[in-house]
Each structure stands twice: as structure tokens, then as C-alpha cells.
Structures
1.
Amino acid sequence: MVKFLKKNYGNILILAFLALLIFPQTGTPIKVFFNRLISFSPSILSEEDRTRLEDYNWVLRDMEGNLVNLDRSRERVVIINFWGTWCPPCIAEMPSLQELYNDYGTQVDFYLVSAEDLSLIDRFMESREFEMPAFQLRSVPPDNLSYKSLPTTYLLDKQGQIVIRKTGAANWNSKSTRELLDQLLMD
């Protein structure tokens, strides 16, 4: 038996690791950890690749159950993040979004949008002590803000130009993102 274990030690470790990934209790934290390792600062879209959000008429539900329209953020810098409580890449990038919110929350409008039930969103946010404003999806987003996978995040300037469109986990609390936000807030 010892000879068998020595001979197959690497295979046994790989199988044990894969088994850990199957169970949410162990798999999610492992996936979150690896997503954080590979998260980089999001890329800024080139001028020719940017589109303008013309239609701000988009209804969401805030955590108190009130309907909110994105129109209230017209002519403001806006970050819109589509996410899910079950999504490891979403969970991985949330701390960096929270750090950004801590410093820019009064100057930039943050929308963390999930299609899940408000009580589930609320439990998730409270359990991780996130203070960012979370919203429940109540209507179809404008065409420019479509998404096919989670997380997908948009950064809009004051004129509604989509400056960043990032699918997948990112480090939002990067120096380059902060410099971009500072620039957009001065424009």
C-alpha cells in the first residue's frame, strides 16, 4: 500500500484537489482565491470603441425595496457591476470594489446589480460587511449595458460614454483605475 501511495502521490493530490472544488463549502473559497490571483486592473476602452449610453431609463430595486431609476445618475460618473452571490469571480472582485467605494462613494454612483432575491443579496452583503449599494434587477438594462456572463462591469463618464467594459474579475482598486476616476471627476 505504501508503495502504491508513493507511486501515485501526485495523482492522489490532484484528485483530492478536484474533489474539494466540487463542494461549495470548499470549492467557492478556492475559486475566489485563484480569481483574486489573476485579477488585474481593467483596461480602458479606446476612443473609437466607446459607446454612449443614451437611454438612462432603467429601473432597479434598492435594498429597502424602493424602485430606483438610473436616470438619477445622468451627468455623473457611474460604476455598474452585474454580479451574483454564487459567482466566485464576482466574490473575488468585491473587496476591491468596496475599497474603491470607500474612497469614491460620494463622488461616483455605484450600482451593484444582481437578479437574485433581495433577502439573499442582503445576507451576502451583510455577511461580508460590504457597504456598497446593491440593487435587484427589475427591468432589462439598456442595450449598451447588456451582459452575458458575470461579473460584467461598466464605468461611465459624465457624458454617458462607456469608458470601461470589463467581463470577469478585476482589481478595481488599482492605481490606474483611481487615476482614471480622478480624471473623469475633474472633466
2.
Amino acid sequence: MNKSTKGALAATAAGVLLLGGVGSLAYWSDSATIAGGAVNSGTLSLTDATAGSCATAAWTLDSAESPAGIAFDPATDTLVPGDVLTKRCSYTIGAVGEHLRATVVATGGVASGDLAPSLQVAGGFTIGGSPVTEVTEANDGDTLVAEIQVRFDAAADNTTRSRTAALGNFVVTLSQVHD
């Protein structure tokens, strides 16, 4: 290749490189800033509001016999078929957050022992006297009443005399749900 051909090729290559660089500078661009900021989480809580405390709240005997609703001490008193024991505990709800929704359940309280098959254990909840299974941020500061009932089967036969059962602890739980 002669010198003039080499020179022409070099000039053409340099021109292509310069045009490529010039073309990339011709694109327009702009940017904008989206401001950040603090974000805060809410809360979901239960605070024992039972007179004394839930741990020391008395069981009551709800019976067809008089007087109904008397205090029942599981350590010294005894049940007969058809009796229903009730324990009520109160909790202040802490529910802070946009579109907060939580289910409320009681778990545990499982009966064990030779009287256990004749006992039915159940829990229920109310706010202001109305039954509830869920709470929302609208319930912040409300009082949730948990009522646990232990029913001794009214049809229990003689095999349940002088028997014992132990109830496990109950746990009241609020669990946040989000659809």
C-alpha cells in the first residue's frame, strides 16, 4: 500500500471515530430528584387491663344451681357434670397503622388428665359487648374482653367421679393480616 492510501484510510478512520463521539454528545438528558423522608411503622399490642391481672383473675361457676356466677377456686372446689367455669380477662388494644387489620384468637388451654375427655374448652372475644374475631386501627385504645369457658359434659357418667384434669395456659394473640 502506498503512503497516500494509508493516509486516506487513517483520515477516514479518524473521521468515523470523531463522528461517533460527536453523535453521543448530541443526546439530550435531564434528571429530577424525588425527595426521600422518614417512614414510621405502627404497632399492634395487648396490655393486660384486668383488675389485678389476668393471672390472678378468678374463675366463676356458671351453673343452673343457685347462686350462679360464684367464685370457683380450682385448687379447692370441685365440678359436677353440667358445670361451666368462666374466666374473663380484659386487654387494652394498641392498634396504630394505616389500614391495620388483625385477627384475634385464643390458643392453648388444653386439658390433660383423666377428666379431660369430659371437658370442652373454648374462648371468645368481645369489644363493648359485641363479639369480635378481628380488630382494626379503629379499635386502638378499646378494651378487648377474652372469655374462656370450660364445660363439664352434662351427660358424663359415673366414670368421671373423683377425676382430675389440668388446663394449660391460654394465649390471646393478635395477628396482623394484609390482603
3.
Amino acid sequence: MPDDAVFLALAHPVRRRLLQILAEGPRIAGDLAEQFDLSRPAVAEHLQILRRAALVRDEQVGRQRRYHLTAEPLAEVEDWLHPFEHFWRARLRSFADIAEENT
């Protein structure tokens, strides 16, 4: 089962968005901060939480920090969620059926 820190990190929409951005490739901290209507220290705090959960890693590049997605904890979440997938599929199928009837 994934560490609780991973679930806590994923619970916040800013951190989920940071992971989506980093899935496209490594980014400098300043570039990440520009993606949000938040202060740089606030974004840095979110990155720190992601780092503590091992969802991102950082490297020093000159005077800047470059962040990289670390996908292993996300794979653990996927493995943990897999047994529950049949609940989602059934609900999505029901939703699709209702939507089709109303069109």
C-alpha cells in the first residue's frame, strides 16, 4: 500500500497540477511557479510536500532547482486502486447509458 504521504500530497489540486506539468518533462522551480496564481514560496511549499512524498525529485542547476516527476509512488497508487476499478466502470457505464437515453 502506498505511503500516507503520497495520498496527502495528491489530495491538493495545486500538487496534482504540478505533477501533471512535470509529467511533460522536468521544469525549473520558477517556471512551475509561473503556472499558478500563487506566491513562489507557496508553490515551493507544495513542491516540498511532493518531494517528501517522493513524487518529485529536484536537482541543483546553477542557482536554480529543476524538478522531475518520480513515477514509482504513482504506480503504487495505481496498483492499490486497481481492485476498485470495477466500481468505476459500472458507474461510468450507467452514466453513458443515461446520457444516451437523453440524447
